[in-house]
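Design a sequence for this backbone.
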């Protein structure tokens, strides 16, 4: 049995995000195209056979340990196991902004489920891990399955997709946006017609939009300014409920030229869109 592994926990983009209805429990029904980025956090899992339980080597600002999705994911696996498991210490190399629409928390949960399934040799199927993940957040299943996908329902009904693996400039306007607040806004578009997808959806995502964008532009001038700036160079869009935005470029050098000219004071990064999650690429290497 291996005792330590470091695994990627990538970001996602919602290349488009349509709100097509509402469930009786108030949750919004979405149609969205998820793609991963070759950029994200790293998690290191080290087994501690002499010390039972799950520990983090550092806490995240503003997140109580029991609310941390890494701890919640590890405990969800322990609850499923039929025998005692060795303890584990988990360290986080955090690069993704929190609450930015890049799915960092959901991705951390998925990397924990997939990583500990491997390290603890639990042999749970992807379906079983995605089910556990859905209990932690709507975006966890796509990270568990590891393939770019068209998502329906709350984003858990997934059809694998192969959008172009373009380069992105991702900007983080200096504000934080609460997902619940955006979904409760009166002016939110909630009736975008459903689109039909072919089984091998290639996703000409440039034709689609993010239905949260108008509301977010109005409420957060920082996002509006960044979108207006990035739009000069091509289509720019919000991911999830924001605050991060992205512009798409065919090559790394084209993306870097725009990145170098960004207004001072704004953070972000340049990354490539990838249809196989870096987490699954790494696991294939290990197996
Ligand atoms: C919008 C998306 C798109 O990928 O991403 P993010 O912006 O969070 O990255 C996700 O669907 C985010 O799903 P999830 O991560 O589970 O949402 P949460 O933050 O738990 O949701 C906070 C609140 O927003 C509302 N909510 C959320 C999702 C949804 N489909 N309909 C809703 O009405 C609910 O009131 C919920 O209690
Ligand atoms: N390990 C974690 N990493 C990031 N956020 C976490 C984590 N655990 C819990 N959270 C909480 O989840 C919220 C949403 O995080 P995240 O998935 O990064 O953003 P978003 O849903 O906007 O894409 C954060 O604001 C934070 O309070």
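Sequence:
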């Amino acid at each position: 049995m291996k005792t330590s592994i470091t695994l990627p926990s990538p970001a996602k983009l919602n290349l488009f995000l349509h709100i097509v209805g509402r469930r009786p429990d108030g949750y919004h029904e979405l149609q969205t195209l998820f793609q991963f980025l070759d950029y994200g956090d790293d998690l290191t899992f080290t087994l501690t056979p002499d010390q039972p339980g799950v520990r983090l080597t550092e806490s995240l600002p503003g997140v109580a340990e029991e609310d941390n999705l890494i701890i919640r994911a590890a405990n969800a696996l322990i609850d499923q196991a039929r025998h005692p498991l060795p303890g584990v210490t988990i360290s986080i190399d955090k690069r993704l902004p929190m609450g930015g629409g890049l799915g960092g928390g959901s991705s951390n949960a998925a990397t924990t489920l997939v990583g500990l399934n491997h390290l603890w040799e639990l042999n749970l199927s992807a379906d079983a891990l995605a089910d556990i993940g859905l209990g932690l957040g709507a975006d966890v299943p796509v990270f568990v399955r590891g393939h770019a996908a068209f998502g329906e329902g709350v984003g858990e009904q997934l059809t694998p997709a192969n959008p172009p693996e373009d380069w992105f400039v991702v900007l983080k306007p200096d504000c934080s946006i609460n997902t619940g607040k955006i979904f409760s806004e009166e002016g939110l578009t909630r009736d975008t017609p459903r689109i039909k997808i072919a089984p091998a959806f290639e996703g000409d995502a440039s034709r689609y939009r993010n239905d949260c964008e108008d509301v977010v532009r109005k409420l957060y001038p920082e996002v509006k300014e960044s979108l207006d700036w990035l739009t000069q160079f091509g289509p720019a869009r919000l991911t999830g409920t924001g605050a991060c935005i992205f512009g798409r470029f065919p090559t790394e050098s084209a993306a870097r030229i725009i990145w170098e000219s960004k207004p001072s004071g704004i953070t972000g990064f340049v990354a490539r869109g990838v249809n196989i999650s870096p987490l699954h690429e790494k696991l294939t290497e290990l197996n």
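Residues 104-119 form the longest helix (16 residues).
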